[in-house]
Specification:
The chain is α/β, with parallel strands linked by helices. It has 9 helices and 16 strands. Helix 2 crosses helix 3 and helix 2 packs across helix 8. The structure holds NADPH dihydro-nicotinamide-adenine-dinucleotide phosphate (NDP).
């Protein structure tokens, strides 16, 4: 079968399309014939070695497809089931072996592209807005990279929860997409000072929470745009990792809270995975959550997909189609 393999870490050029042996499931696994794999920023961290994995490895953390074979202990899925998953390396491939307790059924009315687009970024937007900092009506939230994959979904969920949403985006075109997704105010943070603008838009009060997946370039100012006892939810580092910092800065800027959450801890149990994925998939079925597929690339164009994502050329979801 074909797979996208990384045998040394580095830039997009280390991505290789290779032939690998056909998979056999372990007793607790199901082999899923992948129909669509999600491309996520975490794949860049793995490729670069920022998140270490034993080499060589097959990239990709998110997929949707059809169960082809199951291991001897598997009872929750059967061959032919339409399933989706996230959090297991190896989805950039024709097939992937996945622990069966990580698979969820795809609702009848959703296609594979929608399911693959929903799992990682959708459940991330869900846990950030419903669990890490559960948004209450009337609160003001700042969402960085609001036209990104997670960003656009988070904007929609924050609006549904009754927040006033201020978004940042890298260009006017992206700002428009984030506004169309529901953001009330947009700051083009590549040309405007988001600290100054956020304070202006909140009459110097600041925001209740900042959701930041950009990291290095935004973190310092995040601390200055929060209201006292506000929450900084740092969930990624698209611009680079945030360096160590002095905890006294939290005191100085108003007894702030900082958390650095990660999806696996919010879908760790089968019960939480089922509840969260059901919520997200149902939002899509009902039309409450709109997915924007930026582009579906053939598997062989995984390098190009990574270049586009890292180059800030995308808005919404990128998929690879084996
Ligand atoms: P996006 O589609 O949001 O792409 C990243 C965006 O970040 C870009 O489009 C760009 O938007 C912005 N950005 C700002 N500075 C840079 C830079 N220097 N280089 C590249 N991009 C930059 O990606 P995802 O939705 O996949 O992920 C968004 C963030 O969420 C990532 O940090 C990712 O790691 C994190 N994440 C964390 C999870 C968790 O559980 N902790 C789970 C899922 C994702 P613009 O041009 O508008 O600035």
């Amino acid at each position: 079968m074909k797979a996208i393999q990384v045998s040394k870490v580095g830039g997009p050029e280390v991505i290789e399309l290779v032939d690998v042996p056909t998979l056999k499931p372990k007793p607790n696994e199901a082999v899923v014939q992948i129909k669509a794999a999600g491309v996520n920023f975490i794949d860049v961290y793995y490729r670069e070695g920022r998140y270490p994995a034993p080499l060589p490895f097959i990239l990709g953390q998110e997929g949707a497809g059809v169960v082809s074979t199951i291991g001897s202990e598997v009872s929750n899925v059967k061959p032919g089931d339409r399933v989706a998953y996230t959090g297991v390396l190896g989805s950039y491939a024709d097939s992937a072996a996945v622990p069966a307790d990580r698979l969820v059924q795809i609702p009848e009315t959703l296609d594979f592209n929608q399911a693959a687009a929903a799992m990682l970024q959708g459940m991330t937007a869900h846990y950030l807005s419903h669990s890490t900092f559960p948004i209450k009506p009337g609160q003001t939230v700042l969402i960085h990279a609001a036209a990104g994959g997670v960003g656009m979904l988070l904007v929609q969920m924050a609006k549904k929860l009754g927040a006033r949403v201020i978004g940042t985006a890298g260009s006017g075109e992206k700002a428009k997409l984030a506004r169309d997704a529901g953001a009330d105010e947009l700051i083009i943070y590549t040309t405007q000072d988001f600290e100054k603008e956020t304070l202006r838009l909140t009459d110097d009060k600041g925001v209740d929470v900042v959701y930041d997946g950009v990291g290095k370039t935004t973190f310092e100012k995040d601390l200055k745009v929060l209201s006292p006892r506000g929450y900084l939810v740092l969930f990624g580092g698209a611009s680079g990792a945030v360096p160590p910092f002095d905890l006294m800065l939290l005191t100085k800027n108003g007894s702030l809270f900082v958390t650095r959450p990660s999806l696996p801890h919010y879908i760790a149990t089968r019960a939480e995975l089922e509840q969260r994925s059901r919520d997200v998939l149902q939002m899509i079925v009902s039309g409450d959550l709109k997915l924007r597929i930026h582009k579906a690339y053939p598997l062989s164009q995984a390098q190009e997909a990574h270049r586009d994502l890292e180059g800030r050329n995308t808005s919404g979801k990128l998929l690879l189609i084996p």
